[in-house]
Design brief:
Rossmann fold, 3 domains, 4-stranded parallel β-sheet, 32% helix, Dna Ligase, domain 1, nucleotide-binding, 5-stranded antiparallel β-sheet, D-amino Acid Aminotransferase, Chain A, domain 1, ATP_grasp_subdomain_1, ligase
């Protein structure tokens, strides 16, 4: 097969892991930076040029689209889809998952358990929004962000009010979410590939931080999800129509809840933590769907 990874970071661990897995299975693989893709529609047929060279021999693409390159990356992914090239994650699925509020709306519609969450625009009555929550602390999130960036903890409603007013003054749309104290700074990450949980780990926050992201010094441990947790991860991936994704969950007194679904999950932390070759599973998914 001829496979391309759409990534701006050829030297990133996840990209290198995918390249290695593809080469071990005797595929021809290249890394294409979507920033340098030129797209054309000629006589009703879509074409893609990487720099000045036409790309017309791919069987599959693996989008690794960063948050800072969502529009260009999804546009290029959509163009390859129009050329009948299989994408392990579709352009529309990336867009659905990248907007936190849109993804929560979809998850709620499909009956996926999530923490109590409110959307706050700068035109909204902030007092009324805060009145919907019984008490603090509260989590404040910007609509787009990765590695814990744009996620803040307000210890009480008064502090949350000040934070919301500051965001409103800058016309920034945010989410307000209940704080699940019983999770004790821990969350679960499950990697789903083609409707199967292929790996899972528990992440624990570093001292003094409520976020468990490994990029922020958190620690991680290999785990086996229970039936309810695995079913929830699969349900979330299916709801957002993601062939490959990372599902972050919290353990609450009401059962597991989905915190976020990532369409471009990093592989380094979970591959090293679990010893599982997730990249191999992703390549296998592309093999099964060769067009």
């Amino acid at each position: 097969m001829n496979i391309a990874i759409l990534s701006r970071g050829a030297n990133l661990y996840s990209t290198r892991s995918l390249v290695k897995a593809a080469e071990q299975r005797n595929h021809s693989i290249e890394v294409i930076d979507p920033t340098y893709c030129q797209m054309l529609i000629e006589e009703g047929k879509p074409k893609v040029f990487y720099f000045e060279e036409e790309v017309n021999d791919l069987h599959a693409i693996i989008p690794r689209i960063g948050a800072s390159n969502t529009f260009q990356g999804c546009t290029v992914t959509r163009h390859f889809e129009a050329m009948n090239v299989f994408a392990t994650v579709t352009s529309e699925a990336i867009l659905r998952s990248r907007d936190k509020w849109s993804s929560f709306q979809i998850l709620a519609n499909k009956g996926v358990a999530v923490p109590k969450t409110a959307f706050a625009d700068f035109n909204f009555n902030l007092d009324h929004i805060l009145s919907q929550f019984d008490h603090g602390p509260l989590i404040i999130k910007v609509l787009e962000g990765t590695h814990g960036n744009g996620v803040m903890l307000a210890p009480d409603k008064k502090t949350a009010q000040s934070m919301l007013e500051a965001f409103a003054s800058q016309k920034i749309k945010i989410l307000i979410q209940e704080f699940i104290a019983e999770s004790k700074g821990e969350d679960l990450r499950a990697i789903v590939v083609d409707g199967v949980v292929v790996a899972a780990m528990k992440r624990k926050s570093a001292n003094g931080d409520f976020r468990s992201n490994l990029h922020r010094g958190g620690s991680s441990f290999k785990i086996n999800l229970n039936y309810q947790e695995e079913a929830l991860a699969l349900k979330a991936a299916k709801a957002l129509k993601l062939g490959v994704c990372g599902v972050d969950m919290l353990r609450s007194d009401q059962g597991p809840m989905v915190l976020e679904v990532n369409s471009t999950p990093g592989l380094e932390g979970i591959e090293k933590t679990t010893g599982i070759n997730i990249a191999k599973s992703i390549i296998g998914y592309a093999e099964r769907n060769k067009k």
